[in-house]
Amino acid sequence: MTPLFTVSGLRIAIRRDLDERVVVDGVDLEVGAGETLALVGESASGKSLIALGSLDLLSPGARVVGGTTLFEGTALQGLAGDDWRRLVGMGIGVLFQDAIGAWDPLDIMGAQSGEVLDEHTELTDEEIQSRVLEALGEVGLSKRRHFLAFSHEVSRGQAQRMMLAAALLAAPRLLIADEPLSGLDITVARAVLDLIDDLRAKRGMGMLLVTHDLAIVAAVADRVAVVYSGMIVEQAPVGVLYRRPRHPYMSGLLGSVPGLVRGRLRPIRGEAPDIFEVAAGCPFAPRCDHVVERCRTERPALRVVGESMVACHRAEELELAGVG
Ligand SMILES: Nc1ncnc2c1ncn2[C@@H]1O[C@H](COP(=O)(O)OP(=O)(O)OP(=O)(O)O)[C@@H](O)[C@H]1O
Ligand code: SF4
Ligand SMILES: [Mg+2]
What we know:
The protein has 12 helices and 12 strands. The protein has helices spanning 47-53, 81-91, 109-113, 115-120, 125-138, 143-147, 156-168, 186-203, 214-220, 238-243, 248-255, 293-297; strands spanning 5-16, 19-31, 36-40, 62-71, 74-75, 92-95, 174-178, 206-210, 223-228, 231-237, 303-305, 308-310.
């Protein structure tokens, strides 16, 4: 069976001043139909670069310099602008990290939500409006009021629900959600997460979920890819990863979360590296309790170890702490 979404050899360069460097160098990902893959990692590790780069949606200063993305077997990179917009617009819904900033402040949100149907379908204005109103009801918003609202008139949680309604209008088969709960307080975040996951399950959509929150991942993900300094350092089914992490970074992440760890926390020492300072060896070496000489000179490749894929020279021999 053709996988829903496959990213192979993704390479991304970013620019600072006059210098451009490749900071994501050969990332592979796959999301099956109806499956949720979570991309986790600390802030500035490159999660959004990877998620948005896979769709060629990067903001200025970053660009894709290699790799292929297949959606339902079609390569996005080979498509002309109009075909790309139709395939991505109708097939893939995107929830951006900035729920307010993603909207044009000068137009009502209801009209912006319907643009994808206006561009890619033969529906009349009345039919599009009625679809948008129906979608607003589905995400728990007041139909008329939120249809007519400007982005500065709604709360962050409402803007996120509006974005979800807009993303689902075209009945996409894949949802890419980049930190969809950022900036929401804990009760609103929980309600939005449940809504996203319920609608995803009801419609049988696949989801690429970007988050740094390991409790959210435990609640909704099937598989997890762990990002560190632009690299995937571990990838595994969620239960396997939490019980038996095989990369010291993942074990450290789990050990830093109060709700997950029994007893004393085991935080990771030191600070995450700047993605722009590409390390020669393992990027985690300066913070790793298991570092050996080889780690400082040779970059570990992602390979199969047990039920996981791990990029650590010592993955077979280390016995790392997980959570129950
Ligand atoms: N368009 C861009 N131009 C230049 N640098 C960029 C661009 N986008 C991201 N970066 C840099 O790449 C690094 C990774 O950014 P990214 O947004 O992918 O992080 P992230 O893992 O999503 O973090 P967060 O959890 O805070 O959202 C950061 O150092 C960021 O400054
Ligand atoms: S490769 Fe070496 S430094 Fe990197 S995580 Fe493994 S043991 Fe630690
Ligand atoms: Mg991000």
